[in-house]
Amino acid sequence: MDLTTQSEVAESIEENRATLDNTSNIIELEKEKSKPRKNKEKSKEKPFRAIGYNAGSLYLISKEQLQVLTFKARDLKESNLLLLAPLSWWRNNYPQYNDNGDAKKTPDWSKAADDIIRECSKAGVYSSDSIRGLGFWRDGDRIIQHLGNVLYDVTNDKKVSMLDPSLKGIYQRESAQPKRKTESANEELVDLFIKAINSIYWKDPTHAQLFLGWIVLARFCGLLDWRSHIWVTGEHGAGKSDTVLDAFRIALGSGNYISAKGSTTEAGARQRLAFNAIPFVLDEAEPNTNKDCSRIDAILTLARNSSSDDEATAIKGTVSGTSMYYRNRSMFCFASINPRELELADQSRISILEIVKKPQTADSKDTFNFIKKAYLKLEREDFSTQLNNLIISRLPTLEKNLAVFVEVAGDHLGHSRDGKQYGSLLAGFATLAHNEPIDLATAKAYVEKLKLTEVVEENRDTNATGWDMCWIKMSAVKLTFRDSRSNVTVGEGIEMLQQKNIEELARIVGYEHSGGGKIGQEQLERAALRGKIEVEKALKKLGIVYQDGTASLYGCVGEGIYIANSSEAMSKALSGTPFQNWKKHSSRIGEKVSKLIKMDGKVSRAIFISFN
Fold first, then answer.
1. Which range (161-165, 187-191, 339-343, 538-542) has the least confidence?
2. DSSP 3-state assignment of 440?
3. Where is this region: Disordered (predicted)?
4. What CA–CA distances, in Å, run from 111 to 79, 95, 108, 293?
5. Which SS3 state, helix, strand or coil, does residue 133 take?
C-alpha cells in the first residue's frame, strides 16, 4: 500500500468516526427532548381558583368549567385534579424526579393536593352567599351583568373574566344568554308600551303604573335593597293571558325570566332559580284546594324571603346532617282568577293588581286589537333588549328615584315597609317615563294625586274577603238534629235564633202550627223552645254558639257568634276546601275569648265574631 492509499484510508476512518459521533449526539439530544425539563419555568396563570373551605370541604372553580367544584381532602387525586387543569399543566408545575434526577411522567399529586388544601385555607371560609348567577349584581363599586357564559362590567363598559381576582363575588357559567346589544328603546317605543299597558282594563289606573314599575325593576332585582312582588288577578275572560302575561314576554324577553304554572312546587321554584337574580312569574296560582293552598303558601314563603337581602337566605337540612343555603334575590309575579288570601307578613310585600272584565263591545274589541298590534310592533323591534339597555343607561336615575319615592310613599302611607313596597314600584315607573330623576316636591304631589292610600287599603281588604269567603262555606254546612228530618244550614239556624221565628223553630221538632187561640199559641211556643234548644245543640256540635246580645255568655259583649278554634265535625264538613283551618280567618277579624268554651263535650278556645 502506497502512502496515498494509507492517507485516504485514514481520512475515511476519521469521517466515519465523526459521523458516528454526530449520530450519537442526535440520539442523546432526542432523548433529552423526550424528558420533562427539570428547571422549566412554571405557568404563571393558574387554570383554577381556590375559593375557600367549609366543614371539611374544599371549594374551587376551574377555568374550563367555570363552576364551583367541591372536594374532600381525600378526593384530591388524579381523576379529580384533572377536572381543574390538564395533565400537561400538572406535569409542568408539579414534576416528580427519579434518583437520577430525571423527571417522571407522573406529576407529584401529593404536593399538588397539599398546595390546594393550603390555598383553600388561605382563601377563608366559603359561603354560597357569594355565588352569583344570571342577572345584574353589585360587585364592589361596579355593576356586573352575568350573561351566562360572559360577564359584562356595566359601569366601565367592558367584558370581565369570571376568574378575575378583583371580583368580589363568585360567578359560575350558566346557559348562554343572547349576545349583548347596544341599541336603546326610543321615546316612541316607550310611549307605545306605556299606552298599551294603560289600555288594559285595570280596576284602578294606579295598578297600571305599579305593573309597569314591576316590569322595569324585575330584570335588575339583584341590585335592589327591596324587591316588590305583585299578584295580578281578574275573573275568567278578563284577558290576563293575552295582555299581562304577553307583556312579560314583550318587555322582559322570554329567556330572561322564569315562567311557571300553578302546579309548580316551592322546591322546584327554588332549584330552578338557584343563585340567579331573575324574575319569576307563576300563572294559574289558583287556591282551589287545601293542597293548592299549601303549595302556594310555600312559594309565598320563598317570595317573602326574597324581598330583601336581610331575608334572602333560606336554610335547608340534608340527609347528611349538613345545611344547604339558598340565596333568593328574585322578584315574583303571581297570576290567578282568585288570589290567595295573604298573611299579614305578605300584605306589605305583595301588591294585588286587578283586571276587570269588560262586555264585548266594538270599543273593547278595538282596545284589545290595539294592545295586540302594539305588542307585535314591540316584539319586531326587539323591545325587551332595547328596554333593558335604556334602563341600564338610567341606572343612576333609578337609584335616585328609589330613594325619593320610598321616602315619600312611606311618609304618605305611614309605614316604612309600605313605602318600600309601593315607592319602589312607582320609582320604576318614573324611571321609565322620565329621563331625569324626580325631585322630592314633584314626587309628593304625584303620590297624593294617585290616592295611593286608597289603593293600599283596598289591598288590605283581602283579610275581610278571606273571612267572608270562609263564612260563606261555614254557613252552608248542614245542621244535624237528633229526631228531625229538617234540612237546615248553619246560616239558616242562626237566622232563626236572631229573628226568634217561632214557627220555623217549632218545625225543627216536627210541630206544625194549625190551630188558634191561647192553647194553640202556648203549644207553638213550647215547640219553638224545644226547636231553639235543638238548633243551639246542633250549632255546638259544629263549634258555634250564638249570643243574642242581651247578656254576655263567655265575656264578650254584643250580638255575635263564638266559633271554636277546632271542631272535628266542622273540619270534616270543610274538608277539601281552603277553609279547613278557619281559625286563621276568624282570628283576623274576631275577638279572642279568654274563657274556655265547652262544645259537644269538648273544651276549646274560641273567637267571638261580632254582628255589629
1. 339-343
2. helix
3. 24-45
4. 15, 10, 6, 56
5. coil
Give per-residue burial for 170-200: e unless 16+ CB within 10 Å, then b. Answer: bbbbbeebeeeeeebbeeebbebbbebbebb
**Average pLDDT estimate for 307-319:** 65
Are 532 and 505 a contacting pair, CB within 8 Å?
A: yes
% pLDDT > 70, the chain: 88
How far apart are alpha carbons 378 and 324 in whole angstroms?
42
Burial class (CB in 10 A: 0-12, 13-18, 19+), 566: middle
User: For residue 333, what are the CA distances in angstroms to 1, 260, 314?
Assistant: 110, 10, 20
Residue 576's pLDDT is 75
pLDDT at 99: 81
What single-letter amino acid sits at 428? G
- The whole-number pLDDT of residue 515 equals 64
- Provide mean pLDDT across the span 20-39: 51
Give residue 240's pLDDT. Answer: 85
How does pLDDT run across 436-445, given as a tens digit for each residue? 999 999 999 9
Spatial separation of the C-alpha atoms in residues 146 and 221, rounded to whole Å:
13
Q: What is the distance between the alpha carbons of residues 351 and 232, in angstroms, rounded to a whole number?
A: 8
Q: In 3D, which of 136, 191, 184, 155 has the Cα closest to residue 434?
A: 191
Cell of 190: 316607550
DSSP string spanning 280-326?
EEE------SHHHHHHHHHHHHHHHHHSBTTT-EEEEE-TTS-EEEE
DSSP states along 143-207: EEEE-SS-EEETTTTEEE-TT-TT-SSEE---SPPPPP------HHHHHHHHHHHHHS-BSSHHH
Question: Helix, strand, or coil here: 136?
Answer: strand
Alpha carbon dihedral 469, 475, 476, 480, in 10-degree steps, equals: 150
| Phi, psi for 123 (deg, rounded to 5) | -70, -20
Upper half-sphere CA count for residue 41 (Cβ side, 13 Å): 3
Q: Which pLDDT tens digit goes with each residue over 516-563?
A: 677 778 889 999 999 999 999 999 999 999 999 999 999 999 999 999
Q: Residue 367 in 3-state DSSP?
A: helix
Locate 3 and state its grid cell. Answer: 502512502
Task: Give the single-character DSSP code of 264.
Answer: -
H or E stretch including 424?
helix 416-433
pTM for the full predicted model = 0.72
38 pLDDT higher than 90: no
Mean pLDDT calculated for residue range 134-149: 94
Please state at what angle helix 452-460 crosses helix 462-475, rounded to 10 degrees: 30
Nearest 5°: phi and psi at 606?
-145, 165
- SS3 (DSSP) at 220: coil
Q: Is 425 exposed, middle or buried (0-12, 13-18, 19+ CB in 10 A)?
A: buried
Give me the pLDDT at residue 509, please: 87
* C-alpha cell read off for 279: 324574575
**Chain CA centroid to CA 493, Å:** 45
Sequence-ordered list of residues with C-beta below 8 angstroms from that of 31, at least 6 positions apart, any chain: none
- Mind listing the pLDDT tens digit for each residue in 324-362? 666 789 999 999 988 887 777 788 899 999 998 888 899
Q: Are strands 142-146 and 151-153 parallel, antiparallel or unpaired?
A: antiparallel
Torsion of CA 604, 606, 611, 612, to 10 degrees: 140
